Protein: Radical SAM domain-containing protein
Organism: Clostridium aceticum
Amino acid sequence: MSKKNYIIPIFIPHQGCPHDCSFCNQKRIAGEIDEVTQKDVDQLIHHYLQLFPKDAVNKEVAFYGGSFTGIPIKNQLQLLKPAFEMKRLGRIHGIRVSTRPDYIDEERLDLLKRYGVCTIELGVQSTDDRVLDLNHRGHKREDVFYAAGLIKKYEFKLGLQMMVGLLGDDRDSIQKTAKDILSLKPDFVRIYPTIVIKDTHLETLYRQGKYAPFSFEETVVICKDLLLQFEENHIPVIRLGLQSTEDLADGKAIVAGPYHPAFREIVEGEIYKEIIEKKLKTVERDTGTSLIIYCHSSIVSKVAGFKQSNKKYLINKYGLSKVIIKHCLDMPKGEVKVLSIFDENL
């Protein structure tokens, strides 16, 4: 069976960006990448199409990094033309770009619409003007609302990105950003914990003792609450945590901060641990009791927790003999059922 979406990623790091945001070093995050040309785009599309299965349902070219609509018009056209031609021929089905809220206007959107772009992601990061200013974002909250409204008016799909733990951030500013994003009703969201990357302004502040990243534990709790808020409002969170790269994975790029390659898995595990503990309050048990947890097959690993952490936690905290997780296709995907047994042979 074919998976739903196949992405052809094209990275244009730092192109079009008018500012060096406090947290940003695109070369460290995305790796050393030369300037992308029209020929490069054409070759990448053909390369990926050869790798995709013939029955791939949805194939999309995605321009990541930088601020696409900040690139000179002639350069935007050079990058878009090969993707648009492949879309016209039916070889791909969509094109998406990422940009800044203050680089959106009717002229730019007219161009993107004309060349087949379907989705626009805005790097919002925060809607607290003080936080935006401290992190050298160069735009205001009002720019976010204007850009999002215009993108929706032009009937593009809208994606919004937010960050947790920026310089000046606290629980209130993060919740304010989440509330604003919810009010804009995007088609999807990405959530990134703030990491101190080498050769950034944030690293300088960190070395000077003027910035302290959120702890890993606090970031997990905050992101757990954010994920639940967006899911309850039917807004998909398509990424939670930084995409792992070679520099990030081996730690060469990271100075400090709550980075983990399985960050989302850890957050989702915490959600199910909380659900299970609530249900345990209504389940009769004694020391040595075994628990059976039923859930849909698609969430077994989340219920078990990262590296079986939930199972270990429950056994240690409640003096259980064992925790058995059984999948049940008839159960709704987000629900779990907890039963206790006293006969460990069952």
User: Anything to note?
Assistant: The chain has a mean pLDDT of 91.
